[in-house]
């Protein structure tokens, strides 16, 4: 499985993990900040060219690592992120 460089940016109360450039990401998982200790994952989008390459999971893993480093929790409202949390107990430490 190919690993891609995941970048994370935040502006005001929004953020995203993405692959590619911030202006034109090939894949992105977006979130909203709810206070200082919770992020709400609201959307995942992966370009057709990257489908089937586990890109969504790489984006989520980057956000899980960020949440662990900052000591914050995550609430996955995005159906993709929620499905991964439902299947993988190893990331439940950051689940709200």
Quick recap:
With 96 residues, this protein is α+β, with helices and mostly antiparallel strands. It has helices at residues 55-70, 79-87; strands at 7-11, 14-20, 25-33, 38-46, 73-76.
Give a written overview of the molecule.
- This protein has 96 residues and is of the alpha+beta class.
- 26% of the residues lie in helices and 35% in strands.
- It has two helices and five strands.
- It has helices spanning 55-70, 79-87, and strands spanning 7-11, 14-20, 25-33, 38-46, 73-76.
- It has a five-stranded mixed beta sheet.
- β4 (38-46), α1 and β5 (73-76) form a beta-alpha-beta unit.
- The longest helix has 16 residues, at 55-70.
- The protein is globular.
- It starts with 6 loop residues before the first strand and ends in a 9-residue tail after the last helix.
- 29% of the residues are buried.
Key attributes of the depicted protein:
alpha+beta; 5-stranded mixed β-sheet; 96 residues; 26% helix; 35% strand
Give the SSE layout.
Elements: E1 7-11, E2 14-20, E3 25-33, E4 38-46, H1 55-70, E5 73-76, H2 79-87
Parallel strand pairs: 4-5
Antiparallel strand pairs: 1-2, 2-3, 3-4
Helix content: 25-40%
Within the largest sheet, what's the order of strands?
1-2-3-4-5
Mean pLDDT across residues: 96
Morphology call? globular
Order of helices and strands: EEEEHEH
Tally of contiguous helical segments: 2
Strand content: 35-45%
Class derived from helix and strand content: alpha+beta
pLDDT < 50 runs, ≥5 residues: none
